[in-house]
Design goal:
Length: 95
């Protein structure tokens, strides 16, 4: 059971890093620091979009329009941290 908790914890941690990388890349593209026409940047951006957008899309539908500010990654990170802590609290006695 402890190995399964460790695996889920690491998957959540990696996904949080991917969310942060996606947000930072979107800022870099918005401020013209990196160019999307660069093939490597385009591939990285496409990968991050495909990995994070299916989870962020339902959150964006529920949130009110805040102009140009997208807080859906923050809400998802908080939810993932809550889920991880809840998982450890619920299964701590079993491990």
């Amino acid at each position: 059971m402890r190995s399964l908790l460790w695996l889920i914890d690491n998957i959540i941690t990696i996904y949080v890093y991917l969310l942060i990388a996606s947000a930072v890349l979107s800022w870099l593209v918005a401020f013209n620091v990196v160019n999307v026409r660069n093939p490597i940047v385009s591939q990285i951006g496409d990968f991050l979009f495909r990995v994070t957008d299916p989870v962020l899309r339902p959150i964006r539908r529920v949130l009110p329009n805040l102009g140009g500010i997208d807080i859906s990654p923050i809400i998802l990170v908080l939810g993932l941290f809550f889920l991880r802590n809840l998982m450890f609290e619920l299964f701590a006695g079993l491990a």
